[in-house]
Structures
1.
Amino acid sequence: MSNTIESHLIETRVFKPSDGFAQRALIPSLDQYRELYQQSIQDPDGFWSKQATELLLWRKKWDTVLKWEAPFAQWFVGGKLNVSENCLDRHLNGPRRNKAAIIWEGEPGEVRTLTYQQLHREVCKFANVLKRNRVQKGDRIIIYMPMCPEAAIAMLACARIGAVHSVVFGGFSSEAIKDRLNDSQAKLVITADGGYRRGAIVPLKKNVDEALKDNTLVERVIVFRRANNEIAITEGRDVWWHREMEYVDPQCEPEALDSEDPLYILYTSGSTGKPKGILHTTGGYLLGVTITSKYIFDLHEDDLYWCSADIGWVTGHSYVVYGPLSNGATTFMYEGAPNWPELDRFWKLIEKYAITVFYTAPTAIRAFIRWGDSYPKGHDLSSLRLLGTVGEPINPEAWIWYHTVIGGGRCPIVDTWWQTETGGIMITPLPGAIPTKPGSATLPFFGVDAAVVDETGKEVPPNVGGKLIIRRPWPSMLRTIWGDEARYEKQYWSDFPGYYFTGDGARRDEDGYFWIVGRIDDVLNVAGHRLGTSEIESALVSHPSVAEAAVVGRPDELKGQAVVAFVTLKQGTTALPELRDQLRQHVATMIGAIARPDDVRFAEALPKTRSGKIMRRLLKEIAAGGKVTGDTTTLEDLNVLAALRGSDE
Ligand code: PRX
């Protein structure tokens, strides 16, 4: 049995950046990318030192660029800076002062614009509110907010005074808040009365109240009034945001923080049990998100940039707030759901605000495809010049749809591979320089020494699958798992000592392009062949009737694992029995008989986490016998499971 992951789905289409795009791009040619990449690998200290000087404002210059005592890294040792000063104050001395920093639309339709000057004032005031409520440098603060400017204000205010924020996604339950409160030992919570989602009000404050039962550490809850829903107030503990803001001064000096002072903890689910608190620090993280935002989104002064991620995910931290604001860009925020009040809300927003750069997730793109072309086609999307994706492998067919229907065939697509742990984008096209291939995240970003290796850590030849590792530290890397160094070491650095193991499987093609096949745990072993589930899913999605597919293994006496595919169909398509055979044949034709699903099940919807990742673990249990025993607390919609169990055969 081979130890590598076989890759059978070969995609041959190549899209070069158009001359027009390249001419205006910050990095306009493949040669220039290669030259900078070489520099970043040959002389990392020199490269990062130059970038840190050019891209950031320091209170005190560092003494040492990198101190690496594997697996613990310190970047810009001895340097002092402040993230909020970099994102705000330094833009106030020139024409950006009155430029929009944030343009926001609420789900019900209200619009707010905050210029850099206005945002700076709000952040300073709120930083003073935190101080007034006895928050000190190093204290942990939980932020549980809807997608509104105050969420960003709260984050930046923490950064201003050196408090460590931990944002909890507004779609999570009180249980999730409780876990994070306990693990981080937070003393203050920032929340809102409620937030809007698909026309309903999410009772955020109520969830916080639940989570705080039996909590003895939290002294204060600051409540922003967003939805005007009725809430309970605990006297002596809860205070209103707007009231607190009346008492404070609009000046607040940014704290000169150590480059390695913690900026935030963000919890992400591990394969087992307890969520991991990923710790990011100040200087290296800010440099990482600043440089990636600038060159990957090719930010120009007149761009209106929209990353549709929620602030509760790392994408919201790095590419809604810190990266764009550090670059002085205008970041667009939308509060609600893409299908409210109609299925065209996103396209309406792009048309209305003339958004130029749009960054979203493959799961969203597949939903758009399912809803039908008429929704985007009913809007003028000609302002768009660049598109991006993140979160999972994008199926080539979905890529082509995004390129054609949303991008009008003219916008490059940056398929960006990275993780909560990496802090910033690691493998990605640079839109004016690197030709793209649908489904590939292409080449490593500056300073990223990525490789695909076998079990022994040896690099595999082109087009052979293996494990994706990073062979040297990078500035925005996680520093540890909060309070658990042993887990940090074991989880990321023990499979290949000295190297960071991403947990993902990948292959490189003959051009050195990376094709990520997804989490190693998503790999099937069928009759001795290791197959990435995402490849079979891509083959299914390339069939004209299929909207979305999730493939899992079922224990099989003969083959080790049998391939079970859960499929949702495009609107207007009926689940005829013939279709099942057609789809099995289609996969056999696209990939090979080895990948032919043993079982195709039609479903109305697939079980997903709140961040849109398909919960294969649950599907596996259903495929194996129908019972779901594992934890379902991160499942977005429990009804989906019931329907799946009841459906079909
Ligand atoms: O498996 C990879 C997948 O998402 C994982 C990281 O998830 P998370 O920490 O939640 O961060 C998501 C946002 C950065 C990765 O290990 N992934 C992310 N981007 C891609 C991807 N898989 C393929 N292609 C991508 N562009």
2.
Amino acid sequence: MSFTNEQLERYSRHIILKEVGVKGQNKLLESKVLVIGTGGLGAPAAMFLAAAGIGTIGLVDFDAVELSNLQRQIIHLTKDVGKPKVLSGKETIREMNPDVDVVTYHEWVSSANMKDIIHDREYDFIIDGTDNFPAKFLINDACVLTKKPFSHAGIIRFFGQTMTYVPGQGPCYRCIFQSPPPPDAVPTCKQAGVLGVMGGIIGTIQATEAIKYVLGIGELLTGSLLTYDALLMEFRKVKLSNNEKCQVCGENATIKELIDYEQAACDVKH
Ligand code: ZN
């Protein structure tokens, strides 16, 4: 694909990088990334993916924008309150970069639609920007079963964590965390609070992983969990290894179909 003058200018800081260049920018423009959840993590991730020129971005979210979202979900603006998040996200991305084709899925992810959404455009990389354990395990299992790479992340209060799964290159989320905690055992951001910038920092790391994966450069967070403590201003990288007994990617895996775990009562929207 040849670039227009406008694209040469738009992506000039990428093109000048020898690790990216014209070839790499073309790869980005031809790539497809699915962002599940357009909240604290997904909002900044989607914005940086769009700015980078990821050609197709899928946005999945059933929620509408609430005023309390705007402290951290920077893809949504005050005028968007009440609007479906996927629509608000699409509008922001279109205004930022017309090269990006935005596909919206105004639905909750569940065992019934997860694989269909992943296969809809055969996404190259998936970003888990969700805020609840049932969705996190669902995304992990779907990615393992369909052999898709994805970035996991979670944020709460002043703390964040992220890891990347690439099929055959390291442990999956379930290798480490096995199964969801009982509903209501772990506080949500709504109950415990979260510093607004946490999603910006961790979500932007997720976007970095997607971009590096597409370009095939650098080291990904496969086989390691990156944790971030904003109060101590400390990043730590914990080495992780495959769990042979993992129920979804281990040798004797028993999970062959997706599971709908019970949501904590406070996660359930009415
Ligand atoms: Zn596993």
3.
Amino acid sequence: MIFETHAHYDDEAFTEDRDSLLKTLSENGIGRVVNVGASPESCQTTIELMEKYDFVYGALGIHPSETAALDEALFAGLREQCRHEKCVAVGEIGLDYYWQEPEREIQKKWFVRQLQLAKELHLPVVIHSRDAAMDTIEIMRAEHAEEIGGVVHCFSYTKETAEIFLKMGFYIGIGGVVTFKNAKKLKEAVEYIPMERIVVETDSPYLAPEPNRGKRNDSSKLPLVINEIARIKQLLPEQVEEITWQNAFQLYRMEKVY
Ligand code: NI
């Protein structure tokens, strides 16, 4: 079975066929899905999916690009949401400097607060970090992220940066980008990262793997990601599937029920 560690099925891209699509995932070998919240609204819709589908769990948090709207009342609401029995992580949280907004100080403030929330609730974190490696690492070190644990999702940095996250005990989320022909740096990082620290994800509806690049993504495309990791690691796809399945249960500290 395949463990989808990061998807956004609450996204409006799935409005037309969300239920029919989710019902077909198990036929396509997808055994677990962690749906990831990114705003107060999507945390609520993530909870609705967690409650509707046995195989869907949730990560709840505020994406850096959504932090401008955060205040103490919304943050208190997030804390309550994170106490849900099927909430397995705080996320996605982090820094995104690809976009100019919100200003970096605001992103940093809520990244720190959400790391502290994860520590308080004994939950791992799902980190989103784009064009912001140095500040992400600095904040994670200052907040002792090695005591929190989690995953750096949709990893996009070099193998040298991967080494730093690995030393903090983090898992690395690999998605469709690894199948892109021009993703040389990422393929090198995958070669370097130990197999026991890799988990697979789609970030659906985004980042569809080749040959679906640019189209809407969903978890049934994960075999394309697994095949490419297997090629790089010189393993069989079935081995990558099994190891990443085990890794994801460790990452999200879930009981193994087969
Ligand atoms: Ni995401």
4.
Amino acid sequence: MNPRFYLVGLRATGKSTVGRLLAKRLNWAFFDTDEEVERRTGLTIREVFSQKGEAVFRELESEVLLSMSRQTPAVIATGGGIVLSESNRQLLKQTGRVLWLHAPPAILWQRMQADPTTSSRRPNLAAGGVAELESLAQARTPLYEEVAHEDFDTSSRIPEAIVEEIVNRCRISY
Ligand code: S3P
């Protein structure tokens, strides 16, 4: 297997928090596609969307993913919409172990409301509250399922416990 884990899932599923802890636990490098887009453009993701548009953001996101797919050993947290592109999905599946983090939309909504800093840096994907998150989950679940090698319910456990489950489960399965 490639010594590379990708974390995918909707916003607020814990990708960056769990990813950082997992990287520390394994002593691997940690990367975050959103952070790298922000670093390269000097803009927040929200500004990239408003000033350049979503299509430009998606192109940048794919470029960043491609460059990160050459890093090893690495844990890579991705933006929630990374799976919208067919070529990103192929790249994810072929170059690492893909871990899908998920939780019910009501829980994601609570977490988003409790984290105004992250929300202020992101475009309003769920301005319509839980209902909008539910429809995003419905639209994207088949895409996450398509790429995921393993999936983890993050609704009721602390990030450290999820990291332990990842380490144990992934050791067993390969
Ligand atoms: C997006 C999720 C965001 C960010 C952008 C688009 C999406 O990342 O990439 O705002 O389409 O779901 P997080 O999942 O890290 O919030």
